[in-house]
Design a protein that fits this description.
437 residues; Ammonium_transpt (chains A, B, C); homotrimer; mainly alpha
Chain lengths: 437, 437, 437
């Protein structure tokens, strides 16, 4: 269901036999066991739990990169946003994203309200359990929201942030993703985004950027023209989070093959795993070497973000590149991170964890890199998708942030920010016994 | 083998074709490849490693919720209890739980001593590798013990606790679980517990409750009628532990379908994944909103326990509810946690991590909720199972705790408790360099 | 491809039907779906992502066992070494290790330079996707490097260490592993090492030992004849790392069955999972009891290393032992750790995390234990393999360390070591806010 256009356009060779098998079986009235149905479903389940695990990765990464006075709040936001995404995507998101024949505005706006029902008999026409697809797709929706929480950390109020998550996961993400993966206008226009460099990562980045601009930087972050470092409180957690994300990404990209029940698809998933790993490694090594060369000291947080940028970069097209292709695409992701993190600071855009360089900028890069290896992909169509999704998500997110700011305020008080969100908003500390240096 | 009654009663449509295939193949003397055998086995392996991972989840959750002076001991207990469970379940547990035709007392007491042998040829009559089933079932036994360690943290002695684990994992759990999953009297009585809300979670909770009553609260926890907060030392770890448990639960509930080698079972596993995730999300969101409303501040530990309570609640019947069903069943789990954690404190029952509300009370709730969606399940039979397992585990655990108390003492000295178990019992600290605030 | 000899020698019964099926399908010109091809590939993918996760386990274990002033550097090394392994194994390692018919020196030295190409059509003759095999085998190469970083922590310079990793993962490991798993001379000699007790763990241990001898102990570690304890800064992380490794080991050993697409292989993977878990449990319990008996206090780090030593011990032969066999083989691993950790200190070999006892000594033990259960394995052949791999890795590693020492120095300055590598080499701290006790 995801990436209908892609299936139709470039992966038909692989998908058709699978679907064919499923239909034959259905016709043959022997529903007991269909190899492709079971294996495709299993891919969604494994891919889904790996991407679910990325929620923990974001939580650890962000908890490690904020100061200790804001850690408990960052953790709360991460658990809450994942939970909200789970509910909203069921309630309205999934039917907006995959309207089938029930578009409200064909190609642009899906089926507006139809909470997703899971407990039916297996639908053999799909070639996989629809419940497994729901489970898998939900995790992508949640990932989009996870990206936002890191950028806005340490100063945004809990409840306005969570209301934004409601809108993002219930409406914004499903609409723009439907344009491509639901068979909407972008997929007709020849856009290619295999696992979501634009639809998930850049989208999350645009929503974060809109929020960061409206929210403003943390108190004390920029003094005159200097950027004051505010080091993360726990780099072990941040590294753990990165490894979790790296692991989860095999599900993110590999599961987006959408099929495992044929030799060709199993081979494709394998290629995707290998390429995904290579891009991450290349991003990390590039950031390591670059920070050594530029600053004479390697920078662990840059290395972590380099790996993540490598992963985001390969996500738009993890199947077609050679391993050398994955290497250089991921390496450029690492370069982007090292150069754009300080650039954002120059612009006084305060992105606490570096999510905008990693997810938005490397996401754009990854989307633009697709035509180098994927037959039929064009830079024009890629740019169209990047711009369309960018404008839509940035503008709608900006409007939502503005409304929230007007109605209830989105920023904690100066006093609360200085004392830390944990005591101010939660009344508890993440590390109550470790005294502050 | 697990949930024989369930298979016979309500899931026959799915299970029979699978078993049929396995038998046909066996008869046909073409043993090379049997689709259902391999896929069912794979489900047990994936489910098993996911549930094994829950041991790490409990360790992190508990290490994060105790004070730093007791962290190393809590970690030691968690590694040790998992290891002991692995040995005891092999030595006597598995044959007690699944006696087949070798009950010592039919329906009530299994095959008393028969260390489990794994290295035979594949037994095609079962429809899966018996070694994979052993691996999977072992993890449920270990989970039961993990539940106990959190409640009794910060004051119980290491060795008496571990001796209790020997009895719990070798005898108590296997006996009560055999009543249902081994084909014993409860399964005959129409009890329904798909993945163990009662048989695993409430059972662990009852054992913990018996221990907590006999052990008494921590020094200084209750002064006159006030409860003194003793905040956990590392909420990042506690959150990580919760995410690990959430992830592992897909294996816990999904693997309990016991089959993946047919369209119907693959579809069922998918439904279970989606429902399990929804219940967790609903429990978390409910606890978030409730603590905001009740206390004007959300409470991260309540949110985490809310998610876990949602998971426990859906565990007795994760297949049959609609997603809306999973939502409200999980949400009530969250309500239970928010209201019963303070209630236990009123009763001066000191449950360090909230395991009794999460596992015992939400476990009872989840078991009672089964008849709302599962055809053939009755409140009477559910109550019977809850009460029978409750009395058995609580009484036997209580006797064991009493004997341990009489023979060797179960509580550390007052001085040791105040100084922390880490230095007193282990002579090492979890965080030796982080000075205490 | 891995363990060609093993497949040919002892597992032919299982492997042959699988390969047979694959070939039949290929011949029959019906390439759409081949059960064994897809399932074998899936085993490599699942096994591969589980072993990839071990990289996070090593990172957390080591970060937890070094002092806080060196944590960020230890994390950097772990992310970097995994990334370098990913690149080097692709660039030259894989073709050296699996030369097929293109040996430079037949049986001894593989195909010297042939970056691995992944994106071809599925090759049905192999019985699995070659890309999935690459992904899986890469993770073993990276594991070898992970072992080294722990031993040399807290005093080795970043860049010389990473250059060593380049050589280890690109050349040293692939060469010695090709002797057995690439079909080289050791496999002809009747050596047995199912998943790498010698080829991975002991090899990593030998490389670490060579480095430790040349690098020397940390300042202040040995005063006269006393060993000064330098406790790890975060035992919660160390425990998490151990659980991650335990989980990942199911992929390490289970995936090394190399096939899942037949009843026999599915059964074998299940047996391996059960045995692997038992050996870990036995190692942990043994270390727990032994440290209680010897020192009157259990020792958490010994328990963790005991579990890991149990895992290493069973790795050379996880399929053939009974569960009781796995128990005593793993338990002896635990004994080895408890007795040899202090012995290394007596020899003033400073192994920060205990990697030499765990990976080298338990690896040798595990390799020697194979003939107790595996038909056809002989102590002579096992010794031959242990000695050959040991001499090769130790000597070549020693030469590389010496060259690095001569050219650029491998040890930080005394001042940097005392101040901690984090500030000296990275200019950042892992826990900047937690003041030191």
């Amino acid at each position: 269901m995801k990436k209908l256009s892609l299936l139709a356009a470039s992966a038909a060779l692989i998908a058709l036999p699978t679907l064919g098998l499923a239909q034959e079986t259905a016709e043959a009235a022997e529903p007991a066991t269909d190899f492709a149905f079971v294996l495709n479903t299993l891919l969604f389940l494994i891919g889904g739990f790996l991407v679910m695990w990325m929620a923990a990765g974001f939580a650890m990464l962000e908890a490690g990169l904020v100061r200790s006075k804001n850690v408990a709040m960052q953790l709360t936001k991460n658990v809450a946003l994942f939970s909200i995404a789970a509910i909203m995507y069921w309630l309205i998101g999934y039917s907006i994203m995959y309207p089938g024949d029930s578009w409200a505005i064909p190609g642009y706006l899906g089926n507006l309200f139809s909470p997703y029902a899971i407990n039916g008999d297996p639908d053999l026409d799909t070639g996989y359990s629809v419940a497994s697809d729901f489970f898998f797709q939900l995790m992508f929706c949640a990932t989009t929201a996870s990206i936002v929480s890191g950028t806005l950390a340490e100063r945004i109020k809990l409840w306005p942030f969570l209301i934004f998550v409601v809108v993002l996961t219930g409406i914004i993400y499903p609409i723009e993703a439907s344009w491509q993966w639901g068979g909407g206008w972008l997929s007709e226009a020849g856009f290619n985004d295999f696992a979501g460099s634009t639809l998930v990562h850049a989208a999350g980045g645009w929503a974060a950027l809109a929020g960061a601009l409206i929210l403003g930087p943390r108190i004390g972050k920029y003094k005159e023209n200097r950027t004051i470092p505010m080091p993360g409180s726990n780099l072990a957690l941040a590294t753990l989070g990165t490894f979790i994300l790296w692991l989860g990404w095999f599900g993110f990209n590999g599961g987006s093959e959408l099929a495992l029940g044929a030799n060709g698809s199993a081979n494709n998933v394998s290629i995707i795993f290998a390429n995904t790993n290579m891009a991450a490694a290349a991003g990390a090594v590039t950031a390591l070497i670059l920070t050594q060369v530029l600053y004479k000291k390697p920078d662990l947080t840059m290395v972590l973000n380099g790996a993540l940028a490598g992963l985001v970069s390969i996500t738009a097209g993890p199947l077609d590149p050679t391993m050398f292709g994955a290497l250089w695409i991921g390496a450029i992701g690492g370069v982007i991170v090292v150069f754009t993190v300080p650039m954002l600071d120059k612009l006084k855009i305060d992105d606490v964890v570096g999510a905008i360089p990693v997810h938005l900028l490397a996401g754009i890069w990854g989307t633009l890199a697709v035509p180098f290896y994927t037959e039929g992909a064009t830079f024009g169509a890629q740019l169209l998708g990047i711009i369309a999704v960018g404008i839509f998500v940035f503008v709608v997110s900006g409007v939502v942030w503005f409304i929230l700011k007007a109605i209830m305020g989105i920023r904690v008080s100066e006093e609360d920010e200085i004392n830390g969100l944990d005591m101010a908003e939660l009344g508890m500390e993440a590390y109550p016994e470790f005294s502050k240096g």
